[in-house]
Request: fold
Amino acid sequence: MGNKTDFLNMNIAELNKHYVSLKERYAEYKNQTMKLDMSRGKPCPEQLELSKSMLDIVTSSDSLKAIDGSDCLNYGGVDGIPEAKELFSQILGVSSNEIIIGGNSSLTLMHDTVSRAMLHGVYGSELPWGKHSTVKFLCPSPGYDRHFAICELSNIEMIAVDMLNDGPDMDAVEKLVSQDDTIKGIWCVPKYSNPDGITYSDQTVDRLANMQTKERDFRVFWDDAYTVHHLTDKPDHLKNILSACKEAGNPDRVFIFTSTSKVTFPGAGVAAMAASVENINYIRKQIAVQTIGPDKINQLRHFRFLKDIDHLRSHMEKHAAIIRPKFEMVLNKLDSELGGKNIATWNKPNGGYFISLNTLDSCAKIVVKMAADAGVTLTPAGATFPYGKDLRDRNIRIAPTFPSLKELEKSIEILCVCIQLASINKILAER
Amino acid sequence: MGNKTDFLNMNIAELNKHYVSLKERYAEYKNQTMKLDMSRGKPCPEQLELSKSMLDIVTSSDSLKAIDGSDCLNYGGVDGIPEAKELFSQILGVSSNEIIIGGNSSLTLMHDTVSRAMLHGVYGSELPWGKHSTVKFLCPSPGYDRHFAICELSNIEMIAVDMLNDGPDMDAVEKLVSQDDTIKGIWCVPKYSNPDGITYSDQTVDRLANMQTKERDFRVFWDDAYTVHHLTDKPDHLKNILSACKEAGNPDRVFIFTSTSKVTFPGAGVAAMAASVENINYIRKQIAVQTIGPDKINQLRHFRFLKDIDHLRSHMEKHAAIIRPKFEMVLNKLDSELGGKNIATWNKPNGGYFISLNTLDSCAKIVVKMAADAGVTLTPAGATFPYGKDLRDRNIRIAPTFPSLKELEKSIEILCVCIQLASINKILAER
Reply:
């Protein structure tokens, strides 16, 4: 019993008929010479507006001292002021002494953690990672392109592992790390994952914490970028991995990263990392050579604006109120344009910044190109895979937050037309 | 014809007499249980006050766009906003496209430049530096302890080279770099050097730019930290090394670093590096993996506050007005307490943050300890040399800027008493 709307069930004449009308729509869009950008997970101007008053709360007439009495204008405080540590300890569910505050970028903290590991090793390493002839990382895919870029720059070989509905394919992960002692790490975006919007199950967290690794100084790079970035009032729950690692007897296994880039300002936020006290003490000594300390004034600004986890949560609800309609619109549009046609699948995330869409195999690249020709910039096809290689050429990352609702609607319409055209081309070619 | 005040000319009885009265003074100081810190080159609160209004000029009601139209609150701009590049290009005498803006710390830019060189090499490298069994840096000494710490962390062997009155001993430098292909770099603080306060002569700059190096990817690490930090109205002149390198046919030889740490806020300034366009393009690609971009709001704040080089210069005159009396007081005190005694020499810098003092050989460590016992914290003896080893144990770095004039006076008095006591002990032991 085939669905009447299912492209795979249509005969050539029916497909050709669709193709002609879609081609007309595509030509119209092209004539409009639009310029729409859905390539990156950027907050929109209305979201930035939510935090603008933060610029007014640390002025020359305010106290510029941290609660420990240190002058935030002067040198000192290599790992952050106490109130910033306290705030991030609440966000991440760790102790204050398990936190290091960084500059404005968690990406920098991740890059630098990998660089330090390559040059000097991690706590417990017998050798710097870079002294081994081969270093490999597991890369659950689709994943975050900038994680993969760090590996490429560092000559770390990437092994793609499938993302399932509850996190990485843990059977594959466990098998690989138990056998291959050159695997030093795994990249994870455990909550509202980039791009799939998946939150790791408790079981996945426990398996990552407990698994036997052949390499003793293996680390989980836990990029908890979207930890407070819910879209619904029934947010996903993520199990605390640092606690799980401690319980498993592997307290030093995980490095946790996060930032306020999508809480306050992407250009001027505050980043932090968390790990066991042993890891943190080891890293702090190295960071003390790299810097006398990150910008404490901006930490003060953030603490005075965000206050505590409860206040932060209500702030994040305001973000959700702005971007939820965009996600809903995209999902409705995908449903109305592509639903029942059997040519694409997509996720419905409860948080984060992306909607991940899979086309028929071998269609993503041509769809992204066609959309670009009609003025819609998407994340390059393949970017969500190691080395930019999506072997099935099907994953497209949709970033709905930055464009206006109107621009977004137009962009998704164009995207859907491109997907249908590419799908028909593929189906016809295979007949 | 001996000087009557010269300790070296005194007989044992005379020395003992001095010793007894100095010992009494020392005991008095000790009884006062003071706590004075002259260990680091920190601006004092009055200096920080000069820039406080910078905190009021980027508020929610101001434009938050850079001159290229980019939103400073959002992602983007990996190497800085155009107006920040323009300001630093004026400060350093280079083109805007020879600049990369960093976060709040030039130390971080230096550390990261060394790390990248070790992991990936520099522009023109055949191999990452870290792939060689030995990497060495020349370290003109006394020098900046944090440069040496970067080498230690990175397993870079340090070769001390003497500082002369016009910069490093260039005969030694030229000989070393022409013969040893494991020497990859040299640390320089070319203007008002840390700690000597020496500015490199034009000839020294030219010799660094022109010298034949056995290693092709050799780099001069040019920490121009005190480039606008004059103490007098007849400031030292430093020849432009990037121009000199271009003229010499070695345009890629130098990495220049500076920051506003001692212009605005040490905890929340803006750092920059400069080099040839080829170097900058090479580095920018690597930095694009490390960060989406440094804090643009703080760049905007700095640009709107400092405006241009002329405005910056008058701002620096206000700094000088605050700290010049401190330098003068220290120099007067050293003169009155130690002058003519033939037990110490010191420099009279025209800028920068330090006064460098040499005791008789083998006295620095004990002097620093005695001062600490009387409540005065100095930079650890030896810190100004690679591996913390001052072979003659004589260099003491005085940082006069942070303490109040009154505290400073007391500190220097104590220091001078300690130097005299240690000197007499040494002279008597050798009789």
Observations:
- Chain A touches chain B through 54 residues (CB under 8 Å).
- The first strand of chain A starts at residue 36 and ends at 38.
- Residues 7-47+313-430 of chain A form a domain with the Aspartate Aminotransferase, domain 1 fold (CATH 3.90.1150.10).
- Chain A has a mean pLDDT of 97.
